[in-house]
Write a structure and sequence with these properties.
By secondary structure, the protein is mainly beta. The chain folds into two domains: 80 residues, Nucleic acid-binding proteins (OB fold (Dihydrolipoamide Acetyltransferase, E2P), Beta Barrel), CATH 2.40.50; 73 residues, OB fold (Dihydrolipoamide Acetyltransferase, E2P), CATH 2.40.50. It is 6% helix and 42% strand. It has two helices and twelve strands. Strands 8-9-10-12-11 form a five-stranded mixed beta barrel. It has a five-stranded mixed β-barrel with strand order 2-3-4-6-5. Strand 9 and strand 10 form a beta hairpin. It starts with 12 loop residues before the first strand and ends in an 8-residue tail after the last strand.
């Protein structure tokens, strides 16, 4: 990760507390009634527990695909970065994302969201030890929850920044594509990527201007 110059005395910093949110289950929707989006997987997205809860399709015109964490294991086994996939889902208003209901892998296997309790088993969040982390860079993509609520951003080094919707709404300018920020918090890194649950965020005053 390339270090960005910043002026601590001028950086606008904000602190806030985390809160828990619920994920909207979408197993009641018929995926065949929804439009299909095709693209190449360029990156996985992690939630603060280290589970895959989304992926990014494309590069120049990147699109976030969100899916519930109870599908994390299936996605990690059946999908890899570089795969061409087909997604059917719902696009919330004003959000560059799709809340996926079904995904077809490159081999033709269908991964369908049947809800977290479809097989009678409860989805337990994995126990992970989050460590102090920081990251800085340019925001490539704003990240949203399944109802289109702003929840963070994807940086150019691949780090996902996550925060509660109420905090993200107040800090929307920091999470918009093209913004240069530095964030501090606690996060996790695994083979699928890195995510930070943000405690503080600052604008990089001296970030270089693209030529």
């Amino acid at each position: 990760m390339t270090a960005r110059r910043r002026r601590p005395e001028r950086a606008r910093r904000h602190r806030f507390h985390q809160s828990q949110t619920r994920i909207n289950d979408m197993h009641w929707i018929d995926p065949d009634s929804l439009p299909e989006t095709r693209g190449k997987v360029t990156r996985f997205l992690l939630n603060p527990h280290g589970e895959i809860d989304g992926l990014v399709l494309g590069a120049r015109q990147a699109l976030q695909v969100h899916f519930p964490p109870h599908l994390s294991r299936q996605i990690s086994r059946q999908v890899a970065v570089g795969d061409d996939v087909r997604v059917r889902g719902v696009k919330p208003r004003g959000a560059n994302m799709i809340a996926a209901v079904s995904l077809v892998t490159k081999s033709g296997r269908v991964i369908l969201d049947e809800g977290p309790h479809h097989d009678g088993a409860k989805h337990d969040k994995p126990h992970v030890e989050r460590k102090p982390m920081d990251a800085s860079g340019e925001v490539l993509l704003s990240l949203y929850g399944p109802k289109g609520e702003l929840r963070g951003a994807l940086l150019d080094d691949g780090t996902s920044l996550r925060m509660p919707p109420h905090a993200a709404a107040e800090l929307a300018a920091y999470l918009a594509p093209g913004a240069h920020v530095q964030a501090w918090g606690h996060g996790i890194r695994n083979r699928h990527g890195r995510t930070i649950e943000v405690d503080e965020i600052a604008e990089l005053i001296d970030a270089p201007v693209p030529a």
